[in-house]
Amino acid sequence: MAVYFFYGDEDYNIELEIEKMRSKLNPDFISMSFQTLDSPDYSTLINALRTPPMMFGEMLVIINAEDYFLSNKNFFDDKELEDIEDALKNNPEQLNIVFVVKLPRNENKKLDSRRKLYKIISKYNAQEFPTFKTYKTDDIANWVKKHAKTKEISLNNDALSLMIEQLGNNLRDFNTELDKLKLVAYPGNVVTKKMVEDICISHQDLFNFTELIMKGEKDRALLEFKKLLDKKHPLELLSAIQTMLRKWILLKINSSMSTFELSKLTGQHEFVVKQTIAKLKNTKAADLIKLKENLFDVEYRIKSAEVLDIISEVECAIIR
Q1: How many angstroms separate the CA atoms of 199 and 184, rounded?
Q2: Cis link prior to 187 (omega < 30° from 0)?
Q3: I need a surface site. Which of 14, 127, 137, 191 has the fewest CB within 10 A?
Q4: Could you tell me the residue ranges of all domains in the chain?
């Protein structure tokens, strides 16, 4: 019925678009009408492109095509590319094909438009999904408002501003926090600044916690950790801290770069970058890397079901 080409480094928006298409399929036959293939070989791909749906209505096939574009390997020869092009031109009725390329976030990678496969599939409903620039707060605000509306809630302007200040341009984090805020706002549907302050962990909260660890004030760091647990599950907290540590490490090891370049590298507003650099002046990159390794190790063991007391294990990782 239609062919699409979704690409870009904002993978969450790509996932939302695919889910919107998936929701239109007949739920009674979803196991047969929805299929995902990861950079399939020629025979698997051509079969998928030419297979007509049966009696259960429209069919949606997602082709995760990162390897086709991000590796040096040539997946298809000229004859196979001709067959793929012919199959797309003669797409069976009620069959929707979506080629997806999720680019690495904040690496400014672009697709090679010289590739023959790109020239073939870019003719069909091609849409780029770029990450919002951190300084384009109006664009982020508009997205958050629309996304909140799908959850049947709205945000006061001061609540919205505070969320953007805390979360930057991470749309997946916005989605998670909006789900929590919806529960807090119930039975109402308006999110206030106070609710955001109570539920969402700010950059400053995480900075204060990590700064205490760097100073060797482990007892105070553990007290801050317990406060943070009121807002997030330990695994969520570990993920948030590691994301922050990754950005700090990038700032420390790329100190020769301009704040504008560092802003693009870390996905943070330039003002936040300047503040963070000043605060990290006396912190060694090696210490940040060691802490990140400790936290990564405990997160891996938690997810591998090797840990009985999650909170105690995280506390041990903090004071090591």
Answers
A1: 8
A2: yes
A3: 127
A4: 2-128, 137-199, 203-319
Query: pLDDT category, 61, cuts 50, 70, 90?
Result: very high
Q: Which residue has the tokens 């529960």?
A: 183
CA 24 remoteness from chain centre: 24
**Encoding tokens for residue 164?**
């953007």
- Classify domain 2-128 at the CATH superfamily level: P-loop containing nucleotide triphosphate hydrolases (3.40.50.300)
- Identify the residue whose tokens are 């009121």: 230
Angle at CA 177, nearest 5°, toward 109 and 130? 20
pLDDT in tens, 309-318: 888 887 777 7
CATH tag, 203-319: 1.20.272.10
Q: How far is CA 29 from the centre of its chain?
A: 29
Bridge partners, 99 (sequence order): 5, 63
Buried b (16+ CB within 10 A) or exposed e, 214-240: beeeeeebbebbeebeebbebeebbeb
Per-residue confidence (pLDDT) for residue 202, from 0 to 100: 66
Q: 137-199 adopts what CATH topology? A: Helicase, Ruva Protein; domain 3 (1.10.8)
Q: Which two tokens stand for residue 262?
A: 């560092």
pLDDT at 55: 65
Neighbouring-strand partners of residue 35? 61
What span, in angstroms and rounded, lies between the C-alpha atoms of 33 and 35? 7
> Would you call 127 helix, strand, or coil by DSSP?
strand
Give the model confidence (pLDDT) of 249-302 as tens digits: 989 898 888 888 888 777 777 777 888 888 888 888 888 888 888 888 888 888
Number of other CB atoms surrounding residue 30 within 10 Å? 13
Phi, psi of 38 (to 5 degrees): -105, 105
Q: Please tell me the pTM assigned to this model.
A: 0.72
Rg (CA), the chain: 23
